[in-house]
Amino acid sequence: MARDRLDALLRLRRLAVHDGIRGLAASIRAEAAAYRQQAVCTAAMAREIAEARSLAACDAALTRFAMWHPQAARALADADTQVKRAGELTRTAQALLGDARGDMRAVELALARRQAETDLATQRSAQHALDDAARRPGIAKA
Predict the structure, then answer these.
(1) How much is the pLDDT for 142?
(2) What is the CATH number of domain 2-132?
(3) What is the mean predicted confidence (pLDDT) over 80-109?
(4) How far apart are the C-alpha atoms of 6 and 100, rounded to whole Å?
(5) Phi, psi of 122 (to 5 degrees)
């Protein structure tokens, strides 16, 4: 009966490990997307700054840049925030996966210990049977 519970617990722990792996993969994908968005914002800002500098003589370009720059700065700040959040979620997913793997390993070790105890009890029982048989009268000793 106890073995059945440990087997069920091991299955649950394995499912938790698989969930942890999926969660970590999703976090890594989200973090990569946040980094890509941050790179897009950074590149756009650098491109616009370069264009504004090269067209400094043109008032229209400077006006567009002046209107665009605050929005781009906010987008870049948002991208930075997303990168930080995604990194935190990835680290959390890694920790959860580590916990799930540790829990699964503990159950595996408990099952192995239980099997070793069962094997030892079986061996002892067999040895006792041999010892009893050897002590019975009428059995020739070699």
Answers:
(1) 52
(2) 1.10.287
(3) 92
(4) 15
(5) -65, -45
